[in-house]
Amino acid sequence: MLRLSLLNAGVVGLSLLVLSSGAAGAAEYSLSVDRVKIDTGDFTRTGIGYNGKTPGPVLRFKEGEDVTINVTNNLDESTSIHWHGLILPYQQDGVPGISYDGIDPGETFTYRFPIVQSGTYWFHSHTGFQEPDGAYGSIIIEPKKREPFRYDREYVVQLTDAHPHSGSRIMRNLKRSADYYNRKQETILDFIAEAKEKGLGATIDDRMMWGDMRMMPRDIEDVQGFTPLINGKSSSQNWTGIFKPGERVRLRFINSSAMTYFDIRIPGLKMTVVQADGNNVQPITVDEFRIGVAETYDVIVKADEDKAYAVFAESMGRTASVRATLAPTEGMVAEEPDLREVPRLTMADMGMDHGNMAGMDHGKMSGMDHGNMAGADQSKMAGMDHSNMAGADQSKMAGMDHSNMAGADQSKMAGMDHSNMAGADQSKMAGMDHSKMAGMDHSNMAGEAKKDDAFYASGSGLVPSAADGGKFLSYSDLKAQKPLYEDREATREIELRLTGNMERYIWSINGVKYEDADPIVLQYGERVRFKFVNETMMTHPMHLHGMWSILDNGNGKWDPIKHTVSVAPGTTVYTETEVDAPGQWAFHCHLSYHAGGGMFRKVIVEGGPKSTSAKPSSVEG
Asked: Are 579 and 524 spatial neighbours (Cβ–Cβ below 8 Å)?
């Protein structure tokens, strides 16, 4: 047995046991799952890590090799490891209850699988809330062929949102009160300021609509009060990556957070994005980008000056940030930018610009299916006068099916006068819970081209802009460098409505929690188009295990290949999947407490090769 210290400085001081192997092209690794100490500089608590630390080690594989990984559970509870983004036999995917039973205390479980890809990935526990408690690490897979871009050195930059509370405690508190961790709620002073700006009536109407929806306009981050870390270090602990002026440095960003999206910038440096979720993309130079939970982005920067640069990650809700440093020598500290203003969701962010609907009782609209308004030409509805609808009996409109109107051009509907709808019998619409607004497709109701900003909500609250007016990466900027699959029509479409009840902190797909849902059944060899309709106020990073998601961002055969796709509030996002992996797989929101709350599905792929070249792993007691 030979202990080789990993030279990658992305996670300083971690090492991995690499066991010698007689077979060429094969490698054997050992990991232990341990109780560890988490010290953020702000708080200290016990967590879970690998090989005695969190983050765990950087696992370095080579495309084409076969790996054996022995995982010893030193905890007093069951555990698991999921190899996030890796294409492998389903029995090796590491999801208890779907791919295997998990790893019991004191046991050693052996994973065996081929490495069939290259790029930046990560691994984490898929048991309970062990991942938010520190059970994560990174994976770098070297390609067989030369990279299509040049760099002199590289670093892993692994982000997380360390919290003083354990994951299980956070979930209990969210169940008791969904806004338990919301420290940016609006106050009476905010109300007064808004009333002065927009008028008292408009401000009251706005508050009433948010109340009807049982949401809050600053409910962008479910869990606040965390300390962001880069490679396990807070701003005060200052993780530092060394460079020589003039070098090209590759930064492998991984978002291992439980719940937090980060906006990334390096003041003074441009970043050239070369990979997304481990797959090469046509290089795009940006000043800032947003990394969703579970995503990875590889960027290259060129630092010519002999000075320290801040690698700055700011949470999407602007409640916390972390700064690391790129510097010519150790001990240098880059200046940390200030947090920007806290964003506020608008009705447009929810896909509903109800600005002129003052006085309406939004009651029980659940059941209205506006979902697929495709094809309807509503361009001539501009200026339409509904003013004489007062008194109309709408009681029989419940369950109204607009399902065939998907994709309607509503861009010219501005100016529709609903102002005199007061008096309409909407008595059966009272008590509206937008968490059950199944079927409503609001993705284009703000006049935004959804493919151009699939990542972001359509209104002003979440659409980001780079500091100092620079270029902010959009999903539509991502183009595959080389298509992975033949460009062909999907054989069928499956609609997945992202639903939930924030008040009860229940999350679901198509209005059904995981424990009550039937599996999604796919057939080997088909090409499935998934339609994600986000009916909630949160952004959801949707992760399909075992197969790639081709993000339909309008670039045709150059659409990028991803393992995690973000769906913003009030938007509809499409992906396609070549169903080429037999077995059972997980499909879920990667926000830990949303997955735990029910936004999760089992996917069963029927048919295909009789043998997946995977045998159940050995377990030693």
From this structure: yes
pLDDT of residue 187: 52
Query: What is the sign of the dihedral through the CA atoms of 185, 188, 189 and 195?
Result: positive
Q: What is the three-class DSSP state of 596?
A: helix
Alpha-carbon torsion 588, 590, 591, 593, what sign?
positive
The answer, yes or no, to whether residue 468 has pLDDT greater than 90, is: no
Nearest to 467 by CA among 269, 238, 323, 293: 269
Pull the structure tokens for residue 17.
């046991």
Q: Amino acid letter at 498?
A: L
Between CA 239 and CA 159 the distance in angstroms is: 11
Rounded-to-integer distance, Cα 421 and Cα 359, Å: 9
* CB environment 88-98: b (16+ within 10 A), e (fewer): bbbbbbbbbeb
Q: What CA–CA distances, in Å, run from 455 to 76, 291, 301, 561?
A: 40, 10, 24, 15
Tokens found for residue 427:
């008595």
Residue 529 amino acid letter: R
Mean pLDDT for all residues in the chain: 80
User: Token pair of 394, please?
Assistant: 């709408």
Residue 265 and residue 166 in contact, taking contact as beta carbons nearer than 8 Å: no
Helical pair 200-212 and 188-198, crossing angle rounded to 10 deg: 130
Q: What is the pTM of this model?
A: 0.78
The pLDDT assigned to 197 comes to 72
Report pLDDT digits (tens) over 240-260.
999 999 999 999 999 999 999
C-beta atoms surrounding 305 within 10 Å: 11
Percentage of the chain with pLDDT > 70? Answer: 69
Q: What is the sign of the dihedral through the CA atoms of 374, 380, 383 and 389?
A: negative
Cα pseudo-dihedral 454, 456, 457, 462, rounded to 10: 180
CA 490, 534, 136 angle in degrees (round to 5)? 90
Q: In whole angstroms, what is the distance from residue 41 CA to residue 154 CA?
A: 26
Closest by Cα among 552, 557, 492, 499 to 527: 492
Is the Cβ–Cβ distance between 462 and 343 less than 8 Å?
yes
Residue linked to tokens 């999921």: 82
What does the DSSP 8-state code read for residue 146?
P
What one-letter code names the amino acid at 409? Answer: D
User: What mean pLDDT do residues 419-427 have?
Assistant: 36
Q: Strand runs (DSSP E) across 81-226, as ranges?
A: 82-84, 108-114, 119-124, 136-142, 153-162
Q: How far apart are CA 275 and CA 563, in angstroms?
A: 12
DSSP-derived letter for residue 558 is G
Q: Looking at the predicted structure, is the pLDDT value of residue 8 above 50?
A: no
Distance CA 381, CA 447 (A): 14
Exposure string for 454-469, b = 16+ CB within 10 A, e = fewer: bbbbbbebbbbeebee
Q: Is the pLDDT of residue 441 over 60?
A: no
Coil vs helix vs strand at 608? coil
Question: 137 and 56 in contact (C-beta within 8 Å)?
Answer: yes
Q: What is the pLDDT of residues 198-223, one digit of tens each?
A: 777 775 666 565 555 555 555 678 98
Q: Identify whether the C-beta of residue 601 lies closer than 8 Å to the C-beta of residue 545.
A: no
Spatial neighbors of 123 by CB under 8 A, at least 6 apart, are 56, 59, 81, 82, 83, 84, 136, 137, 138, 139
Q: Does residue 176 carry a pLDDT above 70? A: yes
Residue type, 467: A
Strand (E) positions, 258-380?
Answer: 262-265, 271-276, 279-286, 288-291, 296-302, 309-315, 321-327
